[in-house]
Amino acid sequence: MRASHGLRVLSVYEGFFSGGARIVHSDVVRGLAEGGQSHQVLSIHGEVLREATRQRMEDDHCYRELTAAGIGVTSLGRSAGLVDGALAANAFSGPELAETARAMAGADVILSLKEQPLALLNQAGLPRRPVVVALHRSDPENQGPALDELKAAIADGTVAACVCCAESTRAAYEAAGIPAGLLHVIPNGVDLLRFRPDPAARLALRTSLRIADRAPVVVFAARYAAMKNVPLLLRAARVWLAREGGGHLVMCGAGMTPGNPGLRADLADAFADAPALADRVRLLGVRHDMPAVYAAADVVALTSVSGEAAPLCLIEGMMCGAVPVTTDVGDSAAIVTGLGFVTPPDPAAIALTWSAAVAGRADLAPDLEAARERFSRTRMIAAYAALLDRLHAEAAPAPSLPDPL
């Protein structure tokens, strides 16, 4: 479906670094561009140090997919987490503001990936454009000054809408004081052509990791962050690996590498009494072949304690045939109802449920197949397109009437 008016949209990112929100938003941008809209992306940071990983914009998979699709991506060139003498996060130089103004002037609508870029968009003197803020968390109070920036932008009249990826997001931001009329829920979706059961990819990845075809495999796809509760995951893995003699835990994402001292300490603590079991924990770091990783899994696990809204790992894993097992955070329970399992944050309970999920995987396969359309990327992008079209139409000035004769 092509947009008749050639809507021009600028997305503003805090930076390009590993995480589900950037994957979803970049996919939305590509989908909207495929539908006829004109899209550009401005990133505040050109590189960041997060999760013990230095991440350059040009190396990022989302950046490469956007530019390969012909979408222009520029950066203010800042570095986050690195010692470079940069300005404070909420202070911007004249050249930075001039570059931002040029990018905004060429757009009809601004998309802010989460509320953090509003520190830039709220600067005085920038062109006035309707701003749509894409919200991907369920803990606005834990976002530092970003919630205040969002409220300031709303009070200033520049925020036309907030897109919430989950009902838990909508409820949390409304409770935090964001007007309900601005909050629109568009659930996350994925490319069903990419994320699907794939026996050949399953076998190939297992072979590359020297994991037997019938060995039970749990995948944990997440960045190394406190909200993900990696210590809980590893304590559960200690119990599960002792029970499942041939089982393996595969961990991937930013910081999921032996070079991360925090993760090394977590592993040492969890497996202190049985270090040999840790040999069946595979640390893969950031991967760009996630459909294959999920296809190789029997279970996709999540042990988060806060912040989650509609975790992309659960959706992607399910669409590839892995059974989701998650703690009850954000919309996770609603996403996996009838398709997987919800556990309390208890290592023994999680380990037991992983085993139940492996055993019940074949029985759940028909339900996972029947649920695919619910998680469609096409549905998500169509909803974004409809919202942006409506907001642009509402912001456009009414045509003037001809002078009477």
From TrEMBL:
Keywords for the protein's UniProt record, in alphabetical order: Glycosyltransferase, Transferase
Taxonomic superkingdom: Bacteria
One Pfam match: Glyco_transf_4
Location of the Glycosyltransferase subfamily 4-like N-terminal domain: 19-192
Molecular function GO labels: glycosyltransferase activity
Protein name: D-inositol 3-phosphate glycosyltransferase
